[in-house]
Amino acid sequence: MALSLEELLKLPPEEMLKHNEKPTGEQLRHKQQVYYDDVQEGMELPKYIYGPMTPTHLFRWSAAVENWHRIHYDLPFATNHDKLPGILVQGSWKQSIMASYLKDWARPNGWFWKASFQHRAMLVPGDILIVWGKVIKKYAKGGMGFVELEIGMKNQDGIESMPGTATVVLPLRGGRPIPYPFVPPEE
Amino acid sequence: MARFLAIVTVPGITEERFREALNQVRKWRIDPRHTVLRAACSLTEGKVVVECEGVEQAVFEKWLQERGWKPEVIHRVDLVHEGGYIWKVG
Q1: Per-position pLDDT tens, chain A of length 187
Q2: Cross-strand pairs, A134
Q3: Which residues 24-53 in chain B show a CB within 8 A of chain A?
Q4: How many helices (H) and strands (E) does chain A have?
Q5: Residues A121/A124/A127/A132 CA torsion (nearest 10 deg)
Q6: CATH of A5-53+89-171, one of 3.10.129.10, 3.30.470.20, 3.30.565.10, 3.40.50.300
Q7: Residue of chain A whose alpha carbon sits nearest to that of B27
């Protein structure tokens, strides 16, 4: 039985990691579709847990996306020049994780349509990150199921670093497939 | 923000005790405004030096006390040489 986000945040960090619901690649390949009909308002999505973050994680991302801003890998610069609490987890990494998270939930035949979020709290090595989502509204339109979500990425202390909202389009049970590429129905 | 440097006398400190005191630390970032940056230890002289970036010295002192360390002095420093650069941190 998966823990709720609230229950998870009461655990010590080393215990949190045991409740990671991130599927393996193999599990994703065989993932069962979540249908619009199965979703209820207030329902939580599986929570993905990353970390503890290390300088290696950060440097790998900086190298991959060629972001050479020193606040992401140069600790003396980050702490002494910018007076930051450490080198910072990249916002672009967090965005990519959030997109993967929502895509994973929608797959294989749903569509992660859109998301909007803010980068608020600074995350540093040592932090454990919990990616979460919660259904706040659902409606069917044009033979497709639209699910609006509250989303975010909290650290082990429950500090929300990335509050936002997203819309995922899921197929109706027995309904037509979500078209690819997805074209939103007209208002 | 300020940079604090604490000098603590810990008679008989060993590598094991130093590691034990710091391995228990879960939050180097004490709160959004205070971060312990590094700690150094002289085993032969029984001294520990700890550096903290923050606003209130009292928050740093409390963190040291939680390690069982009572600082003999805490300096507020203005300049740091590190990584080939001189940084103004005060």
Answers
A1: 799 999 999 999 889 999 999 999 999 999 999 999 999 999 999 999 999 999 999 999 999 999 999 999 999 999 999 989 899 999 999 999 999 999 999 999 999 999 999 999 999 998 999 999 999 999 999 999 999 999 999 999 999 999 999 999 999 999 988 998 888 887 7
A2: A44, A150
A3: 26-29, 32, 35, 37, 53
A4: 6, 5
A5: 40
A6: 3.10.129.10
A7: A126
